[in-house]
Structures are given as structure tokens and as C-alpha cells.
Amino acid sequence: MKCTRSPEEPSTQVCLVAQSYPLGGGEPSRLPILAVKVSTGGVLKHGGVEGVKHYLEAEWKEGWDSWLKQAVEGFPSVLEHLVMTFYVDGCSRVCSHQLVRHRLVSFTQESQRYTELRIVKAFSRAFERELEGEELWETLEELMSLYSFDLSDFEKRLLLKDVEERGIPVDGCRERVKRLLKLLFVIPKSLDEESAVRSFAHSLADYASCRRRGGRMEDCRFLLPQAVRTSLLATANLREWLHVIGLRAHPKAQWEIRGVALALQKLIKEELGWLE
Which domains does the chain have, with CATH numbers? Predict the structure, then answer.
């Protein structure tokens, strides 16, 4: 597995996790070459089935790289025989909603109906304590009020005392809350960070309150903003990935998805040395 980070949002990671290989071994780029040779009669020239074996196992020829480069613009259908799967982690649902518009890509996305592990892990990283269930939701609801409500000093002291009695570290509490929220949500650089954090804190407090009162994940998730981070697995052939990159890595593309597209482009170029 090979991974890189988005140049636009470093907390977003993109990994190449799988790609198609010939059964007998050899690099994936042999599959488009084989397709070219099926089209031009090269496979029949070498005996049909034996011709397939020949092009999958023969020494890589000097001209093959140039054929593949020409295929990108001239006859891209041969690139459809090379399939790649990527894992994208930490992008917002704003970004994933744009990605899934590419209907020739197969997607499986982190569910907000069946898992809350992203929230659990973010709390654990920010506060160095593992909580689950009602205790987690009660604690989150109280902690988020530090940002989402205008509390008096007396109210803040009572809140922090209650949190501390749960064994939660309260030193630098506001900074810990801020870190938790930045782990959970993507904040565009163009927005005022404090205003964004305050808004996210209010949403997370509402979500925690919903869950504490017995609300189901599938219903409480309606209270979370689109900025919440997510993960997805995406599979497509090389022709489609180049199409996605051509659109989404463009300077006029939205900045977050452009970062994901540039990360995809970097991984594909590193894997396929002939691709410019």
C-alpha cells in the first residue's frame, strides 16, 4: 500500500491499496499493452492464447511506453483494463459528495448510521481518555458548551469540575476541545477558524445530546454539518481515474477535491512510470 497526503488539506490521506495484475505475474501496465496487441493482431500472430502469454511475460520493449502515452489521448479504451482501488481518509462530506458524482467509480463510504468510531477516536486523541456510550455523550455535551454557549465564569467552573470528576483532564480544556473539533471537521482556510469551531461545537453538542437521550445514529446524524470528515474506498479503471483527475485537479476545481485529485495523480504517476 502506498499513501500520500492532500497538498490542500494535510489531514486527508489518499492510499493506493490495490490494482489489477496479470495472473502469471508482471506489472499492471502489461494489461493495456495486451489490449493493444489484441486490437492490432499481435496476439494472433503469436498463436492466440500463446500470444497472450507472450505479451504478459516477454521482455518489456522500448516502444511500449510511448504506445501507452499515446493511448491516453488516442485510444484510451485500452486503459480500462487496468483497475485501481484507492482509500481516501479524512476528507469532508462536502468533498465526498463531489467525488461520488463520478458514476463510473465504485464507492463504499464510511457510514454514519452504523459507526461513531471517528468521534470516539477523536475524543480519545484530544483528551487522552477512552469513553463510550452515555458517559461519552454526557462529557461531550458539557465540553462542547465551552465553545457553543456564552457561559459565565461560575458556570464554566461548575462544568469543568463536573468533567474533572469524570477523570477527564481539564488542563488546556479549550485547546483540547478545539483539537477534537479539527480532528472531526474540515475547516476551510477562508473561514474564520474561531467562528467555525464554535459552529461545529454547537452541532456536536446537539448530536451528543440526541444520542444521550436515546436517539439513533441514523437520526442524530442529521445534526452534523457537511464538514464532518469521512472515509471511502473507490475503485475504477485507469481511463476513468485520468478523467476524474483531469476535471478535479484543474485550478478552477474546488480546493478540497483538487487536493484529493492531486494526491491520486501523484500515486498513479509513481506507480506507472510512463504516465506524464
Answer: 1-19+82-112+229-276 (3.30.70.3180), 21-81 (no CATH), 117-223 (no CATH)
Phi/psi for 110 (5° steps) reads -55, 125
Q: Which member of 118, 212, 229, 248 is catalytic?
A: 248
Q: Which residue is it, cell 492532500?
A: 6
Q: Which residue matches cell numbers 478540497?
A: 256
Q: What are the residue ranges of helices labelled H in 47-129?
A: 49-57, 64-73, 93-99, 117-127
User: What is the phi/psi pair of residue 83, to 5°?
Assistant: -110, 135
User: C-alpha cell of 267?
Assistant: 500515486
In contact, 149 and 207? CB cutoff 8 Å: no
- Alpha-carbon span 178 to 58, nearest angstrom: 57
Question: What nine digits make up the cell of 84?
Answer: 485501481
Number of H helices, E strands in the chain: 13, 5
Annotation marks residue 212 as catalytic: no
pLDDT of residue 1: 94
Sequence-distant (≥ 6) Cβ neighbours of residue 37 within 8 angstroms = 43, 51, 55
With a cut of 50, which residues of the chain have pLDDT below it?
Answer: none
What length is written for the chain? Answer: 276
- Residues with Cβ within 8 Å of 204's Cβ and at least 6 positions away in sequence, in order, are 119, 140, 144, 181, 184, 224
pTM recorded for the entire structure: 0.92
**How far from the centroid of its chain's Cα atoms is residue 209's Cα?**
28
Cβ atoms of residues 198 and 185 within 8 Å: no
